[in-house]
Design goal:
The complex is a heterodimer of chains A (332) and B (679). Chain A is of the alpha/beta class. Chain A has three domains: 100 residues, FAD/NAD(P)-binding domain; 75 residues, no CATH class; 125 residues, no CATH class. Chain A is 33% helix and 13% strand. Chain A has twelve helices and ten strands. In chain A, the strands form four sheets. Chain A has a four-stranded mixed β-sheet. In chain A, strands 4-5 form a two-stranded antiparallel ribbon. In chain A, strands 7-8 form a two-stranded antiparallel sheet. Chain A is elongated. Chain A starts with a strand and ends in an 18-residue tail after the last helix. Chain B has four domains: 47 residues, N-terminal domain of TfIIb (Single Sheet); 263 residues, Rossmann fold (3-Layer(aba) Sandwich), CATH 3.40.50; 175 residues, Dimethylsulfoxide Reductase, domain 2, CATH 3.40.228; 111 residues, Beta Barrel (Barwin-like endoglucanases), CATH 2.40.40. Chain B is built from 24 helices and 26 strands. Chain B is of the alpha/beta class. In chain B, α3 crosses α21. Helices cover 32% and strands 18% of the residues of chain B. The mean pLDDT of chain B is 92. Classes of the chains: A alpha/beta (332), B alpha/beta (679).
């Protein structure tokens, strides 16, 4: 316990479960300055997931909630949520601790806890690792496409005093800014732009991009997870041979479907595309949405074709290991 | 197991994409894109990605073949070269050196073309050396030399990206030069305007801001019409015209004869579109013209090229970055084959054979007396063979039996030759007529350099050992040269030849394998060792001093449709095949995409003739007749039909006319009269 602010002793509690909360409250009431470090975005821990508690069969939340509130409002307790301990040094009586506070993109002083940010179309609450988190707030680099919907919801609910300061939101307004104010600001990302388009402009966008295709099969050839030899892309019934551009958008839908969940987001498909079609964006969007709903995004597909497509993809051929190029058919 | 990656250049179009060839135990395993290459940036088209698939094909010629009693029989190299040297010497002695014709090749390296050119001139003693540039960009080489002083693409490929306005006329860029079209689309994304003029709705039209669908062969009229509007709206660059050009007044008077009304009537273009094109091009700060076969393959080819040059000079769009007149060359090394003198009128570096100083220089270097007269062109050789003045031909890697106009005529000519040698990697349609066939190496088995369309000289490197008994072309010609008593043919490597090219060619003087291998990007002119190469030409002055305007009158194509032959036939290439298909038709994925040819026919015409989609029809011209599948589309003008010339089973060139451009001697592949009927 080292000398904290104002010469008082201070304590660091690791873990914001019920034990951590109770310890923090006790210590704080004894006059210590307490830092409560919790790795998830909220304190509460396991007890918040329970219904009743032993031995009184009391409702768990009824016991926990007042304590959580007390901890968050206690003048001697400083909550460090969504933070992790990186390094502990020093000795008993005088520790030095390095804490990494992860970005939540939320200004907690302004946050009213309205929950609007969690209610957006794209940012539905999802179960993760047994804990319920809103992935808008606990932004996961792998799945967030930075659409900025959450921040938009925050602004609409809380007007000028919005709490979400996420970079996606900053980017989002980029194209609406007059050119002289754009300097020093991050432009919006393509997946963000596409995700935010209305159906018609999304239509236009994919049509105009996919019609550039010259059918070089590069996106397929370089794909590290493509394991099908042949498949529909080389089947005349699906994709008419010798046609440029190949059937829009069927060719790319089939390709995306085949890559599907295996995509490792390496971006090779986009890099090797001679016409610079943003193929990676298709996969980035597919990471948050099932392929079926991407088909809504890539329009121009009538119900019949869609049905055929879904059927074809369901009866997946046995994945064969890709043979080395020299051994393929026709090259003896 | 041995595995290696070798950086080399794509053997198809003139973009000059580099990629790695992966070899495994002396067999090509695949193509890997090269991200650091300035042109391709790790991107390739379908032909490039499968470029190596023909290399190990079973059809490859593996030993010399000699025709005995109408059949080809394998022979040893000694035997075959003995026959060739004996027969050629004989014919030379009896009929004179000009009775031998030599075709060099736009598919072979600069070094090989140089050695063959030297062989023709120094050993045989004739200037009868030409290659397929005659059939594609002869009018460019001539026209741009007349206007600017240098017959090559003025700017480099990456610069296309920076243009404000791109005027693509007579080029199917997306299908034929995919990696150049990707720059066009990038420029568009940055806000550039794209004008496309083409009688066929090529894929590039989808992206055009202005589309001019003019009748085939009316290019001069269309360009004059655009220039008329630019002049009348006062959009011309007067300072540029005054300081950098000459003979403007005469040109200006001629242009006045092409008011929009007349132009629209002749070309079939709507006036609004014409005005839009003129305004867009005229107002652009950096405007770039791209053109290809649609401009050059006409009896007015040279006029068309000069008109493009006029348009660029009128608006001051030459000699600056991202501007210029950019002929897109269709073969990997057609630029290089011209540069090193595979033409009947010039030595390497376009030094004229009639110029005494140039001739003396080459005579001194080679130690022989060189012929003084200009030689025969490809098209003239065919005629000469028929009249009997040409007795023998030596053909390296060319396939005139599919690529030349009026094949029946070519067939007669080739079969009337006393002696014919073909040096190729496959038994092509032409090779069937040969007396001796010499097996050559493909691009993957030899060292050398290719010169891409933007004058960029790049290294071709050996990935595997030669297949069978085949040899690199330079070695074959070198050995033959020695056998026939030529001096200076004992080259040890391709590098030796490059040294000789650099010595004798001012524009290549600074180019060496050491510099290329160290990763330098060298576009000629590169006159000295320290020179960095030239990104764009005519910066402060034109190569010829001042740019010259030509007053050009519109002339109609040589053969127009009439009652008997009511359609205009225009020919061209498609994405999935390449030229006469000797290579691409042996690549399974390309053959699967496009297994055979078709005749493209307007919907209305098809309805009139009651031709259904995919139906077999007959197409007939005054010279021949073919049977072919119909492809009915709205993408082509009524009264016009299109046939790709790749396919030996339905060869478009059986129909085309051998009418020539009077100056450039390029045949009119793009216009001839045909009829279409159900057989």
């Amino acid at each position: 316990m080292s000398n904290g602010e104002n010469g008082r002793k201070s304590v660091l509690v690791i873990g914001g479960g019920i034990a951590g909360i109770q310890s923090s409250l006790d210590l704080a009431n004894m006059g210590f300055k307490v830092y409560l470090v919790e790795k998830t975005p909220s304190i509460g821990g396991r007890m918040a997931q329970l219904d009743k508690t032993f031995p009184t069969n009391d409702c768990a939340m009824c016991i926990l909630a007042p304590k959580m509130i007390e901890a968050s409002q206690h003048p001697n307790i400083e909550l460090l949520t969504y933070s992790e301990i990186e390094k502990v040094s020093g000795e008993v009586g005088n520790f030095q601790v390095k804490v990494r506070k992860k970005a939540t993109y939320v200004d907690w002083d302004k946050c009213t806890g309205c929950g609007e940010c969690t209610q957006t179309e794209l940012g539905e609450a999802k179960e993760f690792n047994g804990e319920i988190w809103v992935d808008r707030i606990k932004i996961d680099e792998g799945t967030c496409i930075q659409c900025g919907e959450c921040a938009q919801a925050c602004v609409e609910e809380n007007k000028e005093k919005h709490a979400m300061t996420n970079i996606a939101f900053e980017r989002r307004s980029f194209t609406e800014l007059p050119p002289e104010e754009r300097e020093g600001r991050e432009p919006e990302t393509l997946p963000q732009r596409v995700a935010l388009m209305d159906e018609e402009s999304r239509n236009e966008f994919w049509q105009s991009e996919l019609k550039k295709c010259i059918k070089c099969f590069g996106c397929r050839d370089v794909c590290p997870v493509w394991v099908y030899d042949g498949a529909e892309l080389e089947d005349a019934e699906w994709i008419k041979p010798g046609e440029i551009p190949p059937a829009v958008p069927l060719f790319h839908i089939i390709r995306a479907y085949r890559v599907g969940d295996n995509c490792i987001n390496c971006g090779m498909c986009e890099e090797t595309c001679p016409m610079s079609i943003p193929l990676r964006t298709i996969h980035q969007l597919m990471r948050r949405q099932p392929p079926e709903s991407i088909f809504e995004i890539i329009p121009g597909l009538d119900a019949e074709t869609k049905k055929k497509l879904v059927q074809a993809v369901r009866k997946q051929p046995k994945a064969e290991k890709k043979q080395p190029a020299a051994k393929r058919e026709g090259r003896k | 197991m041995n595995s290696d990656f070798v950086l080399t250049v794509c053997p198809f179009c003139g973009c000059g994409c580099q990629f790695y060839l992966q070899s495994m135990d002396n067999e090509i395993a695949g193509v890997v894109p090269c991200k650091t290459d300035e042109i391709s940036e790790g991107r390739l088209c379908i032909k490039g990605r499968n470029a190596a698939d023909f290399v190990n094909h079973p059809d490859r010629l593996k030993s010399p073949l000699v025709k005995r009693d109408g059949k080809f029989e394998p022979a040893s190299w000694d035997e075959a070269l003995d026959i060739v040297s004996k027969r050629l010497s004989q014919i030379k002695q009896i009929h004179g050196p000009d009775s031998v014709g030599v075709l060099s090749s736009a598919k072979c390296t600069n070094e090989e073309n140089f050695v063959l050119m030297k062989f023709a001139r120094a050993v045989i003693g004739t200037n009868n050396v030409d290659h397929c540039a005659r059939l594609c960009h002869a009018s460019t080489v001539l026209g741009l030399v007349k206007s600017f002083g240098s017959g090559a693409m003025t700017n480099s490929v990456p610069e296309v990206e920076g243009a404000d306005c791109i005027f693509a006329i007579g080029t199917n860029t997306i299908e034929q030069h995919p990696l150049i079209s990707s720059r066009v689309l990038r420029a568009k994304e940055k806000g550039a305007k794209l004008i496309v003029a083409d009688p066929r709705r090529t894929p590039l039209v989808e992206f055009a801001d202005v589309y001019l669908q003019h009748k085939p062969g009316t290019d001069v009229c269309l360009l004059n019409g655009i220039m008329n509007l630019i002049l009348s709206w006062d959009l011309a660059d007067k300072d540029f015209i005054a300081q950098r050009t000459e003979e403007f007044e005469e040109f200006k008077n001629k242009i006045k004869e092409y008011p929009p009304g007349k132009v629209c009537q002749v070309t079939g273009v709507e006036q609004a579109a014409l005005e839009n094109a003129a305004r867009t091009y005229g107002e652009a700060k950096k405007a770039s013209i791209l053109y290809a076969m649609g401009i050059t393959q006409h009896t007015t080819g040279t006029d068309n090229v000069e008109s493009c040059a006029n348009l660029a000079m009128l608006t001051g769009n030459v000699g600056r970055e991202s501007t210029g007149v950019n002929p897109l060359r269709g073969q990997n090394n057609v630029q290089g084959a011209c540069d090193v003198g595979g033409l009947p009128n010039v030595y390497s570096g376009y030094q004229s054979v009639t110029d005494e100083a140039a001739r003396a220089k080459f005579e001194k270097a080679w130690g022989v007396k060189l012929p003084e007269n200009v030689g025969l062109t490809v098209t003239e050789m065919t005629d000469a063979a028929l009249t009997g003045s040409l007795k023998a031909m030596y053909i390296m890697g060319e396939n005139p039996m599919l690529s030349d106009p009026d094949i029946n005529h070519v067939k007669k000519a080739l079969s009337s030759l006393d002696f014919m040698v073909v040096q190729d990697i496959f038994l092509s349609e032409t090779a069937q007529f040969a007396h001796v066939i010499l097996p050559a190496c493909s691009f993957a088995e030899k060292e050398g350099t290719f010169t891409a369309t933007d004058r960029r000289v790049q290294r071709v490197r050996k990935a595997i050992e030669p297949i069978g008994d085949s040899k690199p072309d330079w070695l074959i010609v070198g050995e033959l040269g020695q056998k026939m008593g030529g001096k200076g043919f004992d080259y040890k490597s391709a590098q030796d030849i490059m040294k000789e090219i650099a010595q004798l060619t001012p524009s290549y003087a600074g180019i060496s394998y050491d510099r290329l291998d160290s990763g330098e990007v060298l576009a000629w002119p590169c006159p000295s060792k320290g020179h960095k190469g030239t990104k764009f030409l005519h910066k402060d002055a034109f190569t010829r001093g001042k740019g010259k305007f030509f007053a050009i009158e519109y002339k109609e194509p040589a053969e127009l449709p009439d009652k008997e032959y009511p359609f205009i036939l225009t020919t061209g290439r498609l994405m999935f095949q390449f030229h006469t298909g000797t290579m691409t038709r042996r690549i399974p994925i390309l053959e699967r995409e496009l297994p055979t040819g078709f005749v493209e026919l307007n919907t209305e015409d098809a309805k009139k003739l009651s031709i259904a989609q995919g139906e077999k029809v007959k197409v007939k011209s005054r010279r021949g007749e073919i049977e072919i599948k119909a492809f009915v589309t709205d993408g082509i003008l009524p009264g016009v039909v299109f046939i790709p010339f790749h396919f030996a089973e339905c060869p478009a060139n059986e129909l085309t006319s051998s009418n020539l451009d009077p100056e450039a001697k390029i045949p009119e592949f793009k216009v001839c009269a045909v009829k279409v009927y159900k057989g």
